[in-house]
């Protein structure tokens, strides 16, 4: 019996990533939490969806990861049955220099302010 393989996930090429899609993806608090977590990982590291503690339903988690992937903010690949997620920092920094660091710094400042 042949082993089923996971279908590859579609990602925009670097030149297809649009600023408005990235900003839309980063505008949601849950998606920003995912990006914040992935930004703490080292270069080339990835995390499973379940490694990121989001207090929402699994179907909603799937939606948020899809929005991030389709916007070009993260990459996702299957490793066995797990979906691994990594921030596309190099692509984002090349296209929009300083954007990701600015958004993460503003997010950190806001979280300190509203505590």
From TrEMBL:
Stored Pfam families: HTH_20 (PF12840)
Taxonomic superkingdom: Bacteria
SUPFAM superfamilies in alphabetical order: Winged helix' DNA-binding domain (SSF46785)
HTH arsR-type domain boundaries: 11-107
InterPro entries: ArsR-like_HTH, HTH_ArsR_DNA-bd_dom, HTH_MetalResp_TranReg, WH-like_DNA-bd_sf, WH_DNA-bd_sf
Keywords: DNA-binding, Transcription, Transcription regulation
UniProt protein name: Helix-turn-helix transcriptional regulator
Organism: Actinomadura alba
Lineage: Bacteria, Bacillati, Actinomycetota, Actinomycetes, Streptosporangiales
């Amino acid at each position: 019996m042949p082993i089923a393989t996971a279908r590859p996930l579609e990602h925009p090429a670097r030149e297809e990533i649009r600023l408005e899609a990235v900003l839309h993806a980063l505008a949601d608090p849950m998606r920003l939490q995912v990006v914040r977590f992935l930004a703490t990982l080292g270069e080339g590291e990835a995390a499973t969806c379940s490694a990121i503690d989001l207090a929402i339903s699994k179907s909603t988690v799937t939606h948020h990861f899809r929005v991030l992937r389709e916007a070009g903010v993260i990459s996702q690949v299957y490793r066995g049955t797990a979906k691994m997620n990594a921030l596309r920092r190099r692509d984002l920094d090349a296209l929009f220099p300083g954007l990701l660091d600015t958004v993460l710094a503003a997010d950190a400042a806001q979280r300190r302010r509203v505590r």
